[in-house]
Amino acid sequence: MTILKVPPIPSVGRTNQLVFILGNSLGHSLSPAMHNAAFRALRIPWVYTPLEISKAEVKTAIEILRMPNVHGSNVTVPYKEDVLPSLDNLEEKTRWLGSVNTIYRRGDKLWGTSTDGEGFLRSLGSLRKRIKGSKLLLIGAGGAAKALAGALAESGAKRIFIANRSPKRAKELVKSILKKYPRLESGFISMKEAGKILSQCDGVVQATSIGLKIDDPPPISLAHLRPSTLAVELIYHRETAFLKEVRLRRAHCLGGLGMLLHQGALSFEYWTGHKAPLVLMRKTLLDRLAHQ
Ligand code: NAP
């Protein structure tokens, strides 16, 4: 008989109605503050709380989500792909992407979806219209990068170069995106070549975990970045070396806070069925960042 190791469930005070975020190293996450402010504002008596797990505990964590007092979960680094086999249903966009950041309940079934792609697009605001016909560099091939590749292709990007530490993962992403969007031009590029190709790009998205640690360098050289290129960094809790260098080169840049807000708002709507209080959620994020 296999004995499942249950990860410690944090104490959450008076309510036992829960929404989790599954991941590891969740200390920097601003999602609990953002969602708990939204629950309070809408008088929903739920608590959003981190559940730090190891890779071996992913399956058990999904069993915890089946408890009747648990209303759903976000999934973050590095488990967006690992949760897939344990879910009952996947939305179509998630099935081909193979990345889940939101788990929600419908009846007694657990569904998986990704709000990362649409959250990213919404965070661009009016810049979103610049994607159509553009040449882009996507750095990373993990869960977030996959969702972004789908969103960028869906928005009419002409060409997406994909750079990643592990070529295998990037090549798999290229293969699946080309299968879904045969008119897109896409290909794997090494991290070294990626720096050079920047001179041809209208946009670059930094979607790796490099930058989560304070002394991480930029993932690629930005020497060839054009000032007219839009550079987006998904990390949101600090100005990374990537963003600092983009600013030095006077290119347009955007951090990951807007994406955090919009992907979170979409997740909130899946769990609660209510429109997310965006203004309050944005204010909560900004307040938290200011006091970090
Ligand atoms: P993930 O699935 O674990 O993927 C991690 C990615 O980073 C992979 O491409 C991985 O490359 C690369 N990577 C990790 N460590 C590396 C290193 N030391 N050197 C080179 N490459 C490295 O994570 P994810 O969910 O895609 O998240 C990626 C980043 O986006 C994280 O920083 C996360 O915080 C951020 N994010 C932000 C938002 C937002 O709302 N702003 C939303 C989602 C994610 P390999 O394939 O070679 O391992």
List the defining traits of the structure above.
six-stranded mixed beta sheet, 36% helix, globular, binds NADP nicotinamide-adenine-dinucleotide phosphate
Give an overview of the whole structure.
With 292 residues, the chain is α/β, with parallel strands linked by helices. It is 36% helix and 19% strand. The chain has ten helices and twelve strands. It has helices at residues 31-41, 58-65, 92-97, 116-124, 143-154, 167-180, 191-197, 241-248, 257-272, 278-290, and strands at 18-23, 47-52, 70-75, 89-90, 102-106, 109-113, 135-139, 159-163, 185-189, 203-206, 230-233, 252-254. It has a six-stranded mixed sheet, sandwiched between helices. Strands 9-8-7-10-11-12 form a six-stranded parallel sheet, sandwiched between helices. Strand 1, helix 1 (31-41) and strand 2 (47-52) form a beta-alpha-beta unit. Helix 1 (31-41) crosses helix 10 (278-290), helix 4 crosses helix 5 and helix 9 packs across helix 10. It starts with 17 loop residues before the first strand and ends with a helix. The model is unreliable at 1-6 (pLDDT under 50). NADP nicotinamide-adenine-dinucleotide phosphate is lined by residues 76-78, 80, 116, 140-145, 164-166, 169, 207-210, 212, 234-236, 256, 259-260, 263.
